[in-house]
């Protein structure tokens, strides 16, 4: 955003206090309201892309996923999207590319793998490794 | 429900007890404190009041002054009335958090019993700690007597907590000379005092779960300047009218009149001492004596509000004055004193003002400032006024042993 479009000093709440939700919005039961249905304000990072410095990204391969929810539980940035206990995908506006989801994924082969940020998703899925023979490893 | 305390119309309190009673009557929700001389009895008395059922609130014992102010910041952001007290080294340790409190616009009240800063270690009164806080974005109220420490202790909440202001407030008094000197005090009754201060009105409270709020955000070059600009704007434009409104209400209730800048014998004054703290009282007495005995048209100005700095009031009061002595009770460590600097700034910006200015450094580490010494200063100012120019150096040290110490423009 250009300088000219930014808010002036007299348009802020005193004390640089930020509110999660729009000022006049009423939230009755936040726990049962899905993130996309919450009245997040512009100053909440939910509405902003905060992932532009990611260098590696996780790619999700639905073919091997068993919906164990490990990635959803372990993700430190709530960037795994899961609905009705089914893995849906990754919130790329908030994922920082830490790789924890890949680390905790228990399937063989893994249902999540890290690729460089620029990698095309279809290409990544085409390169997916096959099942590893654990006996051979030893 | 807290018990009420029966107070007489005149109580004998020192400045610390006066401050503690003002805190008790304001029914502070949270006091987080780490006591330090000479302010210790403020929080000690307060803890006693709380233990004996006179306060509904929390007293948090912490491990340092940094933690004390941090606790106050958390409690204030959570949505309560918050206060504490400190001095000197403790104040110095709080400095980092003072800026957090003002930047987050949290109306905490801090009683500062002014004391010198080490080294060398010293427990007595000077204004080094007050000066250390002057750029911190707090409102700083100065008091000259225990009665004023009590009165400002009540006014402070009403000023800082106003939703248009939302700034923390320091109430200063001189270590020992005010804090440990018992005087007659006219307190308000508990009911009257609380009615004056009013019930705390939370704003953007973190404990309001329906409206989640984030305090302590990070802003870089794209936002930081705007937030600081807003804080400065509010200090410069909103605080003085609010203080005057609160003082007017206080006068209506008690008959005690306060102003942004207190002035004595200024109607026809030609030579003026500008001071802070208990020295204002001594200077007031000296001006009266020297007017009677020597016919010197002496006047005294005492700053009630140190920050924001009452630039325009001073311009108005000082425009016809011939000589000004700016009295700084803090080692300037390499330049002229703060008061000299500020008043020189007023003069530079005020075309009608054309006084001879000098800077007196005095009273460091609790060194006395007597009527005789102040007489000497008035006489010197009078000589300058008569000559129409400064006859000695710009800066002089008063009552320090050894050869005369003076600097600049000799």
Q: What does it look like?
A:
Chain A has two domains: 39 residues, no CATH class; 79 residues, Alpha-Beta Plaits. Chain A contains four helices and five strands. Chain A is elongated. Chain B has 410 residues and is an alpha/beta fold. Chain B has two domains: 244 residues, Rossmann fold (3-Layer(aba) Sandwich); 147 residues, Rossmann fold. In chain B, helix 11 crosses helix 12. The radius of gyration of chain B is 21 Å and the shape is globular. The mean pLDDT of chain B is 97. At the A-B interface, strand 1 of A face strand 9 and helix 8 of B.
* Rounded Rg of chain B: 21 Å
The fold-level CATH name of the largest domain in chain A is: Alpha-Beta Plaits
CATH uppermost class of the largest domain in chain B: Alpha Beta
* Helix share, percent of chain B: 25-40%
How far from one another are the termini of chain B? 65 Å
Number of strands of chain B: 17
Shape of chain B: globular
Counting structural domains of chain A, the number is 2
Please trace the helix and strand order of chain A, writing H or E for each element. EEHEEHEHH
Radius of gyration of chain A: 19 Å
What is the SS-derived class of chain A? alpha+beta
